Amino acid sequence: MISRRGFGRAVGAGTGAAAVALAGLEGLSAVSAARSSGATAPDVPPAAPGTHTSFASLKQVRAGLLDIGYAEVGPAHGPVVICLHGWPYDIHNFVDVAPLLAAEGYRVVVPYLRGHGTTRFLSSRTFRNAQQSAIALDIVALMDALKIEKAVLAGFDWGSRTADIIAALWPERCKALVSVSGYLITDLEANKQPLPPKAEYAWWYQYYFATERGRLAMEDTAKRHDLARLVWDTVSPTWDFDDATFDRTAAAFENPDYAAIVLHNYRWRLSLADGERRYDGLEKRLAARPVIEVPTITLDAERDPFTAPGDGSSYRDRFTGTYDHRTLAGIGHNLPQEAPTAFAQAVVDVDHF
Predict the structure, then answer these.
(1) CATH class of 7-350
(2) pTM score, two decimals?
(3) CB neighbour burial string for 30-65, b if at least 16 within 10 angstroms, e if fewer
(4) What is the model's pLDDT at position 35?
């Protein structure tokens, strides 16, 4: 367990929706039986996006450097799935996914990443760092705090990167992986090289955040609301969401550390902001693009401007365990919220590999 006192030592060493009652217990039995017998994964019943609008309650737990807010759905003793959101999003990415998995017997944990929602730093003196290894360690610390030894990790955007890192560096904590957009671990040196112009164009906000104008916009609540809404509109061109759907997520942007975390994340990835020395060892390992050996399903969204060409071929060699790749036609960047059934099915399937 990574306690607050032992957090620095762990880093230096490089180590590491209400509960569904009767239906959840029946699902848990079915999952356990299927996993022990090697049976084919069950089909997840279809659910329309927007079926659910909220989680029944939120919980808080002290973990590492943070007091983490999270939703939990499903039977308390079910096999665990941790769902990790991206930017500019929050736990509502999985508001339809979580009940689908809970109905199959899974305990689903959906945390707010640092700087989002009800997650807070324990100390005002802690540097508001959003480099990739720091965020990954937050989730390892969360697992320790909740006494979760191993889980299926499923994420997209920042969440995919976080799940990829845990699967690569601490595979003993990751039973299986679902990663939207494939292998997203950042190599800072490689990231200095320019992309094709069309790809660079899609990343406009990354460069905006590198400027003083971008910082001022992110620190202005109205401007960052409108900026995030523009991102939603452009990267999910086929998703017919309403204002209420966006505003439920935008509430998570009111976190006092939100602007600092978002700005540092993108500036760090462009080598325009420093990380912390205590994470150097982990970042050196990540720069080597470590392979991921745990069972994995990667998902690409056809209408996502960030989806790499080649139907997953550009990152296929980074996954050396049991593997499957799926492209979802007509779906944009926010894949879990736009296609919750397909995302949940990938989780159930990878757990049966």
Answers:
(1) alpha beta
(2) 0.89
(3) ebeebeeeeeebbebeebebbebeebeebeeeebbb
(4) 47
